[in-house]
From TrEMBL:
<dbReference type="GO" id="GO:0022857">
    <property type="term" value="F:transmembrane transporter activity"/>
</dbReference>
<feature type="transmembrane region" description="Helical">
    <location>
        <begin position="178"/>
        <end position="197"/>
    </location>
</feature>
<dbReference type="GO" id="GO:0005886">
    <property type="term" value="C:plasma membrane"/>
</dbReference>
<feature type="transmembrane region" description="Helical">
    <location>
        <begin position="218"/>
        <end position="236"/>
    </location>
</feature>
<keyword id="KW-0762">Sugar transport</keyword>
<dbReference type="InterPro" id="IPR001851">
    <property type="entry name" value="ABC_transp_permease"/>
</dbReference>
<keyword id="KW-0812">Transmembrane</keyword>
<dbReference type="Pfam" id="PF02653">
    <property type="entry name" value="BPD_transp_2"/>
</dbReference>
<keyword id="KW-1003">Cell membrane</keyword>
<feature type="transmembrane region" description="Helical">
    <location>
        <begin position="87"/>
        <end position="103"/>
    </location>
</feature>
<keyword id="KW-0472">Membrane</keyword>
<feature type="transmembrane region" description="Helical">
    <location>
        <begin position="31"/>
        <end position="51"/>
    </location>
</feature>
<keyword id="KW-0997">Cell inner membrane</keyword>
<keyword id="KW-1133">Transmembrane helix</keyword>
<feature type="transmembrane region" description="Helical">
    <location>
        <begin position="299"/>
        <end position="319"/>
    </location>
</feature>
<feature type="transmembrane region" description="Helical">
    <location>
        <begin position="251"/>
        <end position="270"/>
    </location>
</feature>
<feature type="transmembrane region" description="Helical">
    <location>
        <begin position="334"/>
        <end position="352"/>
    </location>
</feature>
Length: 408
């Protein structure tokens, strides 16, 4: 691998050269997911007149939301080199608790939501304790929990039964939108906050004598990101209803702020706290982390608790989209899609590498494949095969990059 000195990196050309050197060395991050998403959108957009319409764009977001949130939580566990196969049904059980408290017990939505998240966190504590304290492999523990939680969901919902939720706040998460003006205000606030936080972070690192990203490159990347998100807001503010006189559909779905809030919280925890640094340390080398004084067992337990907490929030999103909870909520391909989303987005199955944003990128890739192939009339079997191949390729690239085989 070629070495790019500090003087060269101080120029835009040098920074790009340094980035390409890191890519060839295996540090590819989310690049495959970004390129794959662009290619898929171009292919499906050229083959379907419906794919790039505002209505389908909004549908993509709501369709992918629950899987993305579960994948966000899974990132914390995958960073440790562990796995949680029960996250899908954790969402189902927590969602059932939410709906039962609202529908059957008459509790307000916020009390029910807090209770369902508490249930999710408690389930994660149980799983993490078995893995960390007893040393049972996470694959075995969570596979057993997959079956057990499915049984609990059947008992709560009743086999073949459905519990409906009619709370307006819960239903609005997936079925209502921010007004067009509110959507632009929301975009401006987020854009200003993103720029200010980015500049503050760069200045802090520079004052501390740490290496910072070239400012010109940061400006280009930020401008590109804000332009894309601005176009997305513009598209979502267009009328999506087939009968606007009866019902108008405009604006950003309420689930988007929910996902962004979780992204901000998860990114802060991993990037700005000692706990986040410890997760990466344990995932990179657990024994070295233990010798450095890190409580490895506590880190593992907490990661499983966070994963299940995110799954509980996904349970609320499921309930909102389906207007109910059933024995199949969180089952079927939900968990497989969530793991696939995290890995496709760039999180390593071997631990120590990944970010919460990977779940969003990977979740969009999975949703685009499912949605685009559905619009083109492909059978469900073909969609599963293609998604599986994309996941296999992503895991293969990750494995190869860890061995440095991308270096010529």
């Amino acid at each position: 691998m070629s070495i790019v000195n500090e003087a060269e990196v101080s120029t835009l050309k040098g920074a790009m050269k340094d980035y390409w050197s890191r890519v060839k060395a295996g540090d590819i991050g989310s690049l495959p997911a970004v390129l794959g998403l662009v290619v898929l959108c171009i292919v499906f957009g050229s083959m379907s007149n419906v794919f790039l319409t505002p209505g389908n764009f909004a549908n993509l977001i709501t369709q992918a939301a629950a899987v993305i949130v579960i994948a966000m939580g899974l990132v914390f566990v995958l960073l440790l080199g562990e796995i949680d196969l029960s996250a899908g049904y954790t969402a189902g059980v927590s969602g059932a608790v939410l709906v039962i408290l609202i529908t059957n017990e008459g509790q307000p939505w916020y009390v029910a939501l807090l209770a369902s998240i508490a249930v999710g966190v408690l389930l994660g504590f149980f799983l993490g304790t078995l893995v960390a304290r007893l040393g049972i492999p996470s694959f075995v523990v969570t596979l057993a929990a997959f079956l057990a939680f499915q049984g609990i969901l059947l008992l709560l919902a009743g086999e073949g039964g459905t519990i409906r939720v009619e709370d307006e706040t819960i239903l609005a998460v997936q079925n209502s939108n921010i007004s067009p003006i509110g959507s632009w205000v929301f975009f401006i606030v987020i854009a200003v906050a993103y720029v200010l936080v980015g500049l503050s972070s760069m200045n802090s690192r520079r004052n501390a004598g740490l290496k910072t990203e070239l400012k010109k490159l940061w400006i280009i990347k930020t401008a590109a990101l804000l332009t894309l998100t601005g176009l997305a807001v513009f598209a979502l503010n267009l009328e999506r209803s087939n009968n606007p006189d009866l019902v108008s559909l405009k604006g950003i779905p309420y689930v988007v702020p929910v996902i962004l809030l979780l992204l901000v919280v998860g990114t802060f925890v991993l990037g700005r706290t000692a706990f986040g640094r410890h997760i990466y340390a344990v995932g990179g080398n657990a024994e070295a982390a233990r010798r450095a004084g890190i409580n490895v067992k506590r880190i593992r337990i907490t990661a499983f608790m966070i994963c299940s907490g995110f799954a509980a929030i996904a349970g609320m999103i499921f309930a909102s989209r389906q207007n109910s909870i059933s024995p199949t909520t969180g089952g079927s391909s939900t968990l497989l899609y969530a793991v696939g989303a995290a890995v496709i987005g760039g999180t390593s199955l071997f631990g120590g590498k990944g970010k919460v944003r990977d779940a969003i990128l990977g979740g969009l890739v999975v949703a685009v494949i499912d949605n685009g192939m559905g619009l083109l009339g492909y059978a469900a079997g073909i969609k599963f095969i293609v998604t599986g191949l994309v996941l296999l390729v992503s895991a293969g690239v990750d494995a190869i990059s860890r061995r440095g085989n991308l270096t010529p």
